[in-house]
C-alpha cells in the first residue's frame, strides 16, 4: 500500500517546514525500508502552499508509526488545517 498525505503550509514557513519533514521522512525510510517523496504544488493561494508526503510500499500498521513520527516532530504546529491521508494499492491487488 502507498500513502499520500496532503495539507497546507504557510508560505512564510515553508523552508523551515521542509527541513523538518525531510528529516522525519529520512528517519522513517531508514527504519522501515520504504521509499518516500515530498512534493508541493507550484502555486500558492492566500499565502498557503499545498504539500504532499508520499510513502511507498508500506505495511498495514505504518500509518500508526507515521502519526507517532508526526507528533514527535511537532509537524502539526506548522500545518494550516488537517492532514488528509489517501491510501492506494497496486491495481493487481484489486483484481
Low-confidence stretches: none
Largest sheet descriptor: 4 strands, antiparallel
Silhouette: globular
Structural class: alpha+beta
- The CATH topology turns out to be Alpha-Beta Plaits
Enumerate how many helices there are, as a single number.
Answer: 3
Mean pLDDT: 94
Biggest sheet strand order reads: 2-3-1-4
Rg on CA atoms, Å: 14 Å
How are the SSEs placed, and which strands pair?
Layout: E1 2-10, H1 14-32, E2 35-45, E3 48-56, H2 62-73, E4 79-88, H3 91-94
Antiparallel strand pairs: 1-3, 1-4, 2-3
Helix pairs in contact: 1-2
Question: Could you describe the 3D structure shown?
Answer:
- The radius of gyration is 14 Å and the shape is globular.
- The two termini are 15 Å apart.
- A 4-stranded antiparallel sheet has the order 2-3-1-4, with helices on one face.
- It has one domain (2-94): 2-Layer Sandwich (Alpha-Beta Plaits), CATH 3.30.70.100.
- With 95 residues, the protein is α+β, with helices and mostly antiparallel strands.
- Strand 2 and strand 3 form a beta hairpin.
- Helix 1 (14-32) runs antiparallel to helix 2.
- The protein contains 3 helices and 4 strands, in the order βαββαβα.
Amino acid at each position: 500500500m502507498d500513502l499520500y498525505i496532503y495539507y497546507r503550509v504557510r508560505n512564510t514557513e515553508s523552508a523551515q517546514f521542509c527541513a523538518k519533514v525531510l528529516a522525519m521522512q529520512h528517519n522513517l525510510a531508514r527504519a522501515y525500508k520504504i521509499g518516500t517523496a515530498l512534493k508541493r504544488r507550484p502555486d500558492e493561494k492566500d499565502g498557503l502552499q499545498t504539500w504532499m508526503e508520499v510513502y511507498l510500499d508500506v505495511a498495514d500498521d505504518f500509518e500508526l508509526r507515521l502519526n507517532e513520527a508526526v507528533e514527535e516532530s511537532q509537524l502539526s504546529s506548522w500545518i494550516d488545517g488537517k492532514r488528509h491521508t489517501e491510501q492506494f494499492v497496486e491495481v493487481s491487488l484489486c483484481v
